[in-house]
Design brief:
single chain, alpha+beta, 3 domains, 3-stranded antiparallel sheet
Length: 189
Amino acid sequence: MSPQEQKTKIGQFIQSFQDGMNSWKEAGLILVELVESDPHVYDYITAQSPAMTSGMLQTLERVGRGQLLPTLAMDSSPGGMKLKNLPLSAQQRYETEPVPLVVETNHGPDILLVQVKNMTTKQARQAFTNGRLRTEGEQRAKLIEDRSSAARPVQEVDRPWKIVNHKLNVKGVIFTAGELAAILTQLTK
């Protein structure tokens, strides 16, 4: 494919994608109208189109009600998934504007501006909570909490028994599964 053909195809792809988002908005508006006239319409739609899931319908309904940007409808990135839970004004803002993310450096905390679509799962959990963006102070507190949780050693419990080669070893006395079953039967009589 020549560079000019590639440029043309990219333009066609972008236009088709934009047309799709416009269609999702239109489908969402129609769905809202249907839902308001009959609350059982999800059942009728899935019966006629089994590929259409309840989750897809809920997403399209949110788009139609103006609660979700069409561009986020297909976004499965960690940041995008969190952004979907924010009010529409915040979705619009952070769809393009980077989110301030507190990071630890050798010189103390610093602020890194990160695009939502580029966030890792850990960064998205740090930046967002309960349908809102955490403040920088809340992010610092979360980092400290996460660090202290990770630093706590896991305590091993010293048990008087071990499982070795699918057998129970209690202080040198070895029991097979059959023997344990017989013991349990006697204990429950």
